[in-house]
Amino acid sequence: MDKLIALSRLLFALALIALAASIYSFTQEARQLRTELPALLAQVDTTAQRITPVIEEINNLQSIVPSILAQSAEYQRLVPEVLQRIDDINQQLPIVVGEVARVRDAIPPILAQSEAWHGSLPSVLKQVDYTNQTVRQTNQQINKVNKQIPDVLAESAALRKEVPEIIVQAEGLVAQAEQAGREASKGAVSGVIGGILNSPFQLVDKITDVSSDTFGLKQDKSYTDGDRDKHKAALTKLMKTPKKGHSTRWSNSRSGNSGEVIIQSVSNESDAICYSILSRLNIARGPDKGTHNVITDKCVED
Q1: Of 293, 277, 290, which Cα lies nearest the Cα of 190?
Q2: Best CA proximity match to 224, nearest among 191, 260, 263, 251
Q3: Distance, CA of 143 to CA of 193 (rounded, Å)
Q4: Model pLDDT for residues 165-180, shown as the tens digit of each residue
Q5: Which of 48, 197, 239, 280 is the most exposed place for a label (fewest CB within 10 A)?
Q6: Using an 8 Å Cβ cutoff, are 263 and 235 in contact?
Q7: Of 274, 249, 252, whose CA–CA distance to 264 is shortest?
Q8: What pTM value is reported for the model?
């Protein structure tokens, strides 16, 4: 029994020693904690100061998130339209590429033409200088003519006094000519045109580009622009195979006029081919009613 009590006391003493050791250790830990606590509190304050702006930024971000989401939804709505536009552009790309290729192919001829113009520029400038010289000479001639104008005006005034008598005589001659025209045959020749040309095209233009006076008409409107076009078309057709005796007729339903073009003769002279062409014009109505003829004698360089 005594041993048991002694053992109990021993165990109790050991327990007290262990308790004392624990209290000492806790005291040391508490002392260390008390030493480090100000630094920990300062660090907590610093962390809190850093966290506050972050929290505020997060709050700001949370406030703009709805607008960002709405804008994102709008972008998502526009995506199909953008994709469709991209498809349209892709379809047009081959056309654009082809057009670029054509433009690229057209550049060399343009550059060549530009080089040709550059080469001809000296002659053009020379011609301009010659033209300027001619203009100066013409101006000098005009100045000389201006000095003669007073004499011409004086002579004109004297002539104007004699005009009434001349007009009376002219009216008498015109009346006699009209009477003779009415009595003459309808196939009578009203005019003759001659000269030398460089090509059959000039011949056609020269024959058809005539005035009413050439046909001996009293009124310009008797021979209309439509008549002139019909006349030119008929002559152009005839001159494709020009042979003696060939003829072509034309008519204009608008004016009622008609006509005929006849090759009377074809001959070779020196380095040219000479033609004698009869242009017959039939006026349907008006003071010029009847047949009017013009003979054209022209030579075209061979």
Answers
A1: 293
A2: 251
A3: 36
A4: 555 445 544 444 444 4
A5: 48
A6: no
A7: 274
A8: 0.38
